[in-house]
Amino acid sequence: MSFISRPILIAVDGPAASGKGTIARALAKHFDLPHMDTGMLYRAVALTMFRFGGDPASEFEALRACEGVAQIDPTDPELRSEVVGSIASRISTYAGVRSALLDRQRNFASQASGAVLDGRDIGTVIAPEASAKLFVTASAEVRARRRVAELLSRGMPAHLEDVLIDIRARDARDSGRDTAPLVQAPDADLLDTSEMDIDDAITTAIGLVERKLAALA
Ligand code: CDP
Q: Tens of pLDDT along 145-181?
């Protein structure tokens, strides 16, 4: 369903394990748009470093690892591991890494078909012109429980307390960094999924986006 003449561009941002990826995929399906999970770009840099023994504390080494992104298989299950997520969270604080990954994201956002992108800075930095923006969140405890369930379902080890500590550390890094910190864009709709199951969250997200598109028509 299309309400407006310009391409539909949807920005979905939010903290770790908020459900933004699932919501973004569902929006892409509903509005028939291509989808980019921008966290996978940061994870690809992290996996490159992990494989070559790079030090995440070195911005220089992280920048070098950006050149390896195209060589990473996007279906590699290791991309989704906690260790890679944790490295991704650290190297994503470097301004140089963020700018090395910028064009790829902007090109995806500006394609003629429209697009859905999810990440941390889509509505604020990558696509401030987006037709609809969602800021998806949930309490840290709820997000930690979801992340544990997700990891266990993929056969990966997970302990609630460790995951909660890690989620809080990631929140602090995401919100506290100087370049493109995680912040709700002023024109984004807030979607708190703490009390929602995933079907409710998707239905609510579709409703919010449809309202935004209708207002633009
Ligand atoms: O959901 P989770 O935080 O585990 O992972 P993700 O969305 O795959 O992102 C991995 C890491 O990349 C996050 O910890 C973020 O710090 C970072 N990231 C970012 O800085 N900007 C984005 N647009 C996407 C992810």
A: 999 999 899 888 899 999 999 999 999 999 998 999 9
Residue 92 CA, closest ligand 1 atom number: 20
**Pocket-testing residue among 174, 175, 182, 183, ligand 1, by greatest number of atoms within 8 A of Cβ:** 174
- Residue 135's nearest CA partner among 190, 76, 173 is 190
Residue 39 vs residues 1, 59, 203: alpha-carbon distances, Å? 28, 18, 23
Ligand 1 center from residue 18 Cα (angstroms)? 11
The preferred substitution site among 23, 78, 89, 168 for testing ligand 1, maximizing ligand atoms within 8 Å of CB, is 89
Q: Helix 198-216 and helix 20-31: axis angle, to 10°? A: 50
- For ligand 1, the distance from its centroid to the CA atom of residue 49, given in whole angstroms, is 16
Q: Tokens 């370049």 sit at which residue? A: 179
CB 167 within 8 A of CB 144: yes
Structure tokens given for 87: 């490295």
DSSP β-bridge partners for residue 190: 135
Instruction: Assess whether the C-beta atom of 124 lies below 6 angstroms from ligand 1.
Output: no
pLDDT confidence tier of residue 1, bands split at 50, 70 and 90: low
Report the C-alpha gap between 18 and 148 in whole angstroms.
Answer: 13
In sequence order, the β-bridge partners of residue 118 are 12, 37
Burial 78-93 (b: 16+ CB within 10 A, else e): ebbbeebbbbbbbbbb
